[in-house]
Each structure stands twice: as C-alpha cells, then as structure tokens.
Write a structure and sequence with these properties.
Length: about 80
C-alpha cells in the first residue's frame, strides 16, 4: 500500500508542475451554460490541450520563418 501512495504523490507533483492557464471559475461557468457538470479532472485536461495548441502554433510560426504567432497559426489542419 505504501508504494501506491508514493505513486499518487509523484503523479500529483507532475500535474502541478504545469501552470494553469485557465480561469477555473469562468471555464466552469462556460461549461455549465451547456447544462453539464464539470468533473475534477476536466480543467486539468483542458489546460493540457491549451498548452498543446500553443506548442502547435509556435511550431507553425517558426516553420514559416516568423517569431510572431498569429491567429491563423492556431488553425488545425
């Protein structure tokens, strides 16, 4: 049992290492406008998606020889 607790603590530390970019209350309000509940892990996973979008946009800008990320760099193809 002790090993399981150590793994959980390590997993929580990894999740906490990523800074939250979302405003939790506003995100929850936006989701509740669709009459749905928000699970505990929903915001963490959405935050990871935001980081992924940022990474993809930065890569696209760099591939196009720019240091400036533009709105169209966030388009998914």
């Amino acid at each position: 049992m002790v090993k399981k607790k150590k793994k959980k603590v390590a997993a929580k530390k990894k999740k906490q290492a990523i800074e939250m970019l979302l405003v939790a209350s506003k995100t929850k309000d936006a989701l509740k406008a669709y009459d749905v509940n928000v699970a505990a892990d929903a915001l963490d996973n959405l935050n990871l998606m935001v980081y992924w979008y940022i990474e993809q946009a930065a890569k696209r800008a760099a591939e196009n020889g720019r240091k400036t990320v533009r709105g169209h760099d966030f388009a998914i193809m």
